Each structure stands twice: as structure tokens, then as C-alpha cells.
């Protein structure tokens, strides 16, 4: 029960109900309400905060003050104090927002909730929706909504396509705190609440981030993020006890090593009392890890978990573990199997503050992959879903590729675990097994470029990930509409065209790149542009096995690598059988002749030709579609996108011709339409 003052009830009759509902929303939830004028009120707008747990730390009070400065509505002198509904809030006696609305109420159990409520209001206004009858109740579906930076201390960004890092240069922090402040506000506005600030490949300088050499800078970053309710995480080097501590081992069961980590963690919390925890890439792509000492990944993760536990910190341990020194002649080793094979047997062995971070697919963020079978396979382990916003394999922000539809498909995929409807989104958000540590992490796509993301329209991916992590049931179109309206305003012709271009872009990209789920036909190392055999005779486990007769990877139980058996029976059977395997994943699961007839009625080879001709034409049409918007937006915005689309159209032709020529030469089968193939 709440003791609400009379004056509040008079002007806000549903306050009791709202407060009750609001408290049920959890820490970060909020209620937004526009109340009509009436009851003879002379006051205009209010922002009310009900603090169930009164804010005590500076972090919380500064969040409150930021809301005030952002929403521009409550500038009373107590702005830095968290206000409570049981004490009247000074009304703001300035201008009326609309003639029908007397007040705007944002109600939240915490300052973070007020922040998200304020951004909701700004989004509402920014998308041109009327204030009258605004009511919204919202809470995030996922506890952790995180961006992972792959920024290096030298200023480069691994897989970054938007310029250098704004966090680091020359092996030091840039200390561009203004930019960081803008970035923190940007993060909160899209609903993110966690940030990992350095590459998971932790090199020499970054290994020292958790030492006195860098902790003052790390603390300054945390101070800025805290104003926007964002918790800071750092990627750590598993071999730090050796490289930073001078020990002779990093064995997770060695007492001196365990003590070293405990002391390191204690140091970190002295600087950053609300530090989130560590992100770890171990035994992966030549990074150190517990395997060196004959230990398993539970031993490694739990050692860090024990050190972080007293402070409420967590370990985010990545499952991207596979053999990157594979012999391409060996057809029994299958990289797709690796994460499941390594981690599934460890279910139940991880400490409660360990979250396994699992990439959405079994390989590596290809344009088309099945969902990782690890989702749902570890019933006693906290799990985080990892997406890649930065477009490493999807056009590197030179091509338009709106990824939200792909992420939606993954979130909605039914793992069928436990013989029931069990979509990935319910595993990621922990609701299936009532897991409190849960969420979505994604590799960011920002850099120092003025528009943050290189390709202006790639902002929609960044924004979309934040919105989906908050509310996975939003549609890809709704998110596209929100983003386009917030950026370009309310010109319907502009907004509708941008939405349709965004929505078409992933299928277009898939059309002119690698076909039917096979993946990887890219140039080695930088991963841009077509190279069908670029990874075919390499140790990275990324093959398509194309010869004169056929193509694809046999991952079936009877004759292949047995990968399909990692899925629950309904998905296992669907993928394992040539008859029921969906066309778009056919070559991921099966090796077939070029003459194999798809469900679509086309042969595999004709499908390859048709989609590649079509994709290149569609890419060219994207330029024409964008051209129709000339003069309807600031010229600078129009030209920068036009330039990228022109490059994409040229590059799509290159993809078309390389792929079609390769397969015509291999198969000796002509295109039924007799088009030009080289
Ligand atoms: O996709 C691959 C990238 C690497 C990356 C790795 C990972 C940070 O090519 O650049 O390393 O995945 O996720 O760890």
C-alpha cells in the first residue's frame, strides 16, 4: 500500500493503480501518462518518480538529473535528489505542451526507469504522435542489453567500418569525454544498459585495463556511462596473471592465480563500485584459456566468478570455441559442432554469476545460418545471445543490409526444447527457466565517423538491436519506421521509401552473395568481396566442398558430420532430411548435385544463376529508389547514402559475375535463360 497525498490523487485519479502496476514492472520499467486538463488545475507538467528503494548512490541521483535536463521539464532545485511520490513534486509552472494535456506523468520504481520513460516520451514526440491519450507501460524483456566494442587501444577497431575508435588512440584513452557522453545518451535512448569497452581479443595494452595503469580512465568512462544507467564491462585476457602479474602460470586451479584475480577484481571495484564484470574469449582463435592447463571452461569461468561474486559482478564467457587449425582434408571435424560439443557437457557446472555468450549461429554471423543448437541445450546455465551489428559478413557498412529481420527470425525460432514452444527469445531472456542473468549482447558498429556508423542507414541496425533487446516482439517494419522518422522527419514519401529499402535489403544481399546457406565465399582476412575458394583449403573449418558434380556440407546423421543431432528431435529431423530441409539452408546441411530440385521447383544451379542476376539488378534499383528522395532531405544526408549505394551496385555485379562464372565453369551447366556468364 502506498500513502499518496491528496493533491496527487485529485489531479491523477489512477495514481494508486499506476503505482501498483509500476512496481510490478521491475527495476527498469515505467509508466507514461498524459493527463487531460481539468479540475481547475493551473499547473502544467510533472515528472513524478516513485523510488521504492530511495536512490542513495550518486549514480542514481545523476540519472535523475539527466532526465530532467533531457526532458526539459522539471528543473527544480532538487533535481539531483531522487523524488518520491509520497512527497509532493514541485510543479513546473512554465509553458503548456499542448492545449489538451495538463501534465505528463513518468512513473518508475527507479531512476533508470525514469530515464527510459523520458526517452519513450522523446521518441513519441519525435515520431510525431499526439500527446493526448499517451499511455504506455513498459519494461525490458531482457535484463542485459549490451553492446560489445571490439575497439583496440591503438585506435583500430576489429571489424569496424565507421572509422577509428572514439575510445582509444595511441595506446591510451582518447579522453574525449564529450563524445562519450553523447554516446552514453545514445545508448540509453535505444534502451541499452551495458557496455563492454574493449576487443575480446585482448592485446598487451588492454590486458592492463584492470590495473592501476588504466583504472583511473576506466573509472572516468564508468562515471559517464552511469549517468545513463549503463554498466561497464571489460574484456580480460585469460593469461593476465602471467602477462600483467608476472606469475608463471594462469592455471585456474592454481592458488596464486586465483588470488591474483581476486586482488585484481578488488582493485577494479575500488575504482568502479558498480562494475558489471568481465567478458572472456578463451581458447578461441589463438587466445589463451584453460585448455593449456588441462582444465575445462567451467574451471576457467568459475575462477573469475568467485572473484567477482562478492561485488555482484558477473562473468560473460563466450562459446565461440573451435579448432582454427583444422586440416581441410579431414571431413569428420565440423566447426559447426564445436560450441555444443565443448559446452553442452558442462551444463550445471557453471557458477550462478556466469553467463555463456552464444553467437546466434554455429559458425560466425554469416548472412544465413541455422540457429545455434546450444540455445536450449543448457538448462542449468545462464545464457546470453550474441548478435553482430557490425556488418563483417554482410557488406561492411558499404552495402545496405538491415539486419533486424534476420534477428527477428532467430529470436522467434522455436528450439522445441522440452517438447514445447520454446523460442530463442524466451531462452535469451531467461523466462523459460526463470533465469535471472540473461539478455542479448551485440558487437557494435560505431566509430568516430560523424554519422557514427559509416553508412548512415546502418544506424537502423544499431537502433534496432536496442529496441529488440527491450521488446523482441516489435516488428522489423515498426523499428524501421521509428528510426526513419526520428532521423528524417515525417515526410511520408521519405519514410515509406526508406522502410521499403531497409526491408528489401537483406534478401537482396543474400541473393547476390553466397547461396542457400552455404556461407563463407569471401576474401580471407578482411572478409569483403567474393572469393568462392577463399576459405576452401584453409584451416578455419569453413568449407562448401563444391566440385564438378555438386556442392554443400553433409551434416546429416547417417552420412555426414552428425551436426543435425545437436537439435531437438523436431528440428533435427527437419534439417536431417533432404525432403524437409528448407531451401535457404539446404547447402548448410546437405551435399547435393547441381541438378537437385529445390522446393521452389528450380535446380540448385539455376537458383544460383537466377538469384545472382536478380540480386545485382535489385542493388542497382536501390540507387534509383534513393534517387527519388533527392531534395527531400539535407543534401549531405542524401549524397552520402547515394555514394554507398552506387558502390554497392557495382560490387553486386562483381559478386554476381564471380559466383555465376565459378559455378558455370565447375558444373558445365548453362543458364536456361542464356544470360552472360564469363
Ligand atoms: O567473426 C570472427 C571475427 C573475428 C572476431 C571473432 C570473435 C574478435 O572474424 O575478428 O574476433 O569472430 O567473435 O571472437
Automatic annotation (TrEMBL):
Keyword Hydrolase attributed: yes
Sequence ranges assigned to domain Glycosyl hydrolase family 67 C-terminal in this UniProt record: 453-675
Limits of the Glycosyl hydrolase family 67 catalytic domain: 126-452
Highest taxon above the source species: Bacteria
Claim: Transmembrane helix is one of the keywords in the record: no
Region (Disordered): 45-94
Keywords: Carbohydrate metabolism, Glycosidase, Hydrolase, Polysaccharide degradation, Xylan degradation
Ranges annotated as biased composition (Low complexity): 49-94
Family: Belongs to the glycosyl hydrolase 67 family.
Listed name of the protein: Alpha-glucuronidase
Full protein segment contained here: 130 to 807 of 807
Amino acid at each position: 500500500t502506498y500513502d499518496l497525498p491528496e493533491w496527487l490523487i485529485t489531479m491523477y485519479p489512477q495514481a494508486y493503480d499506476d503505482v501498483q502496476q509500476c512496481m510490478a514492472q521491475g527495476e527498469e520499467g515505467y509508466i507514461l501518462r498524459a493527463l487531460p486538463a481539468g479540475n481547475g488545475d493551473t499547473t502544467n507538467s510533472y515528472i513524478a518518480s516513485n523510488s521504492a528503494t530511495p536512490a542513495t548512490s550518486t549514480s542514481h541521483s545523476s540519472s535523475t538529473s539527466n532526465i530532467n535536463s533531457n526532458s526539459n521539464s522539471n528543473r527544480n532545485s532538487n533535481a539531483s535528489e531522487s523524488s518520491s511520490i509520497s512527497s509532493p513534486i514541485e510543479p513546473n509552472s512554465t509553458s503548456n505542451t499542448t492545449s489538451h494535456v495538463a501534465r505528463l506523468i513518468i512513473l518508475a520504481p527507479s531512476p533508470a526507469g525514469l530515464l527510459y520513460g523520458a526517452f519513450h516520451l522523446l521518441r513519441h514526440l519525435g515520431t510525431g504522435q499526439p500527446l493526448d491519450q499517451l499511455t504506455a507501460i513498459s519494461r525490458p524483456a531482457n535484463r542485459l542489453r549490451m553492446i560489445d566494442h571490439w575497439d583496440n587501444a591503438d585506435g583500430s577497431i576489429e571489424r569496424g567500418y565507421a572509422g577509428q575508435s572514439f575510445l582509444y588512440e595511441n595506446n591510451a584513452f582518447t579522453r574525449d569525454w564529450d563524445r562519450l557522453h553523447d554516446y552514453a545518451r545514445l545508448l540509453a535512448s535505444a534502451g541499452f544498459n551495458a557496455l563492454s569497452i574493449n576487443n575480446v581479443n585482448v592485446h598487451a595494452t588492454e590486458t592492463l585495463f584492470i590495473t592501476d595503469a588504466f583504472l583511473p580512465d576506466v573509472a572516468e568512462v564508468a562515471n559517464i556511462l552511469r549517468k545513463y544507467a549503463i554498466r561497464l564491462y571489460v574484456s580480460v585476457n585469460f593469461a593476465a596473471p602471467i602477462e600483467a602479474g608476472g606469475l608463471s602460470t594462469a592455471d585456474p586451479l592454481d592458488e596464486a592465480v586465483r588470488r591474483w584475480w581476486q586482488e585484481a577484481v578488488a582493485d577494479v571495484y575500488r575504482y568502479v563500485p558498480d562494475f558489471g564484470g568481465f567478458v572472456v574469449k578463451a581458447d578461441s582463435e589463438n587466445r589463451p584459456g584453460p585448455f593449456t592447463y588441462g582444465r575445462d571452461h567451467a574451471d576457467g569461468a568459475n575462477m573469475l566468478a568467485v572473484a567477482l561474486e562478492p561485488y555482484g559482478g558477473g562473468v560473460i564467457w563466450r562459446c565461440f570455441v573451435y579448432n582454427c587449425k583444422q586440416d581441410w582434408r579431414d571431413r569428420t571435424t565440423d566447426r559447426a559442432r564445436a560450441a555444443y560439443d565443448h559446452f553442452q557437457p558442462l551444463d550445471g557446472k557453471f557458477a550462478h554469476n556466469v553467463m555463456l555468450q552464444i553467437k546466434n549461429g554455429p559458425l560466425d554471423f554469416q548472412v544465413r545460418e541455422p540457429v545455434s543448437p546450444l540455445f536450449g541445450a543448457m538448462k542449468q546455465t545462464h545464457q546470453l545471445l550474441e548478435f553482430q551489428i557490425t556488418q563483417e559478413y554482410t557488406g561492411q557498412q558499404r552495402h545496405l543490409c538491415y539486419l533486424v529481420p534476420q534477428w527477428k527470425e532467430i529470436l522467434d525460432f522455436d528450439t522445441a526444447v522440452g517438447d514445447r514452444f520454446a523460442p530463442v527469445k524466451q531462452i535469451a531472456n531467461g523466462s523459460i527457466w526463470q533465469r535471472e542473468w540473461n539478455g542479448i549482447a551485440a558487437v557494435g558498429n560505431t566509430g568516430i565517423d560523424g554519422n557514427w556508423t559509416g553508412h548512415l542507414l546502418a544506424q537502423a541496425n544499431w537502433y534496432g538491436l536496442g529496441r529488440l533487446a527491450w521488446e523482441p516482439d516489435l516488428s522489423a517494419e515498426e523499428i524501421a519506421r521509428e528510426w526513419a522518422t526520428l532521423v528524417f522527419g515525417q515526410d511520408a514519401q521519405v519514410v515509406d521509401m526508406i522502410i521499403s529499402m531497409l526491408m528489401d535489403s537483406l534478401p537482396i544481399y543474400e541473393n547476390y552473395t553466397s547461396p542457400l546457406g552455404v556461407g563463407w565465399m569471401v576474401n580471407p582476412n578482411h572478409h569483403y568481396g567474393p572469393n568462392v575458394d577463399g576459405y576452401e583449403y584453409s584451416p578455419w573449418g569453413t568449407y562448401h566442398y563444391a566440385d564438378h558434380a555438386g556442392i554443400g556440407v553433409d551434416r546429416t546423421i547417417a552420412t555426414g558430420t552428425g551436426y543435425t543431432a545437436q537439435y531437438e528431435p523436431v528440428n533435427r529431423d527437419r534439417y536431417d532430411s533432404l525432403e524437409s530441409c528448407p531451401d535457404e539452408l539446404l547447402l548448410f546441411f546437405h551435399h547435393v548435385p547441381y541438378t537437385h530440385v529445390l522446393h521452389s521447383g528450380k535446380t540448385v544451379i539455376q537458383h544460383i544463376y537466377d538469384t545472382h542476376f536478380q540480386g545485382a539488378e535489385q542493388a542497382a534499383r536501390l540507387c534509383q529508389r534513393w534517387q527519388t528522395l533527392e531534395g527531400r532531405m539535407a543534401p549531405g544526408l542524401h549524397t552520402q547514402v547515394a555514394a554507398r549505394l552506387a558502390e554497392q551496385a557495382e560490387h553486386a555485379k562483381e559478386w554476381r559475375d564471380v559466383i555465376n562464372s565459378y559455378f558455370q565453369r565447375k558444373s558445365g551447366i548453362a543458364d536456361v535463360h542464356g544470360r552472360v556468364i564469363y
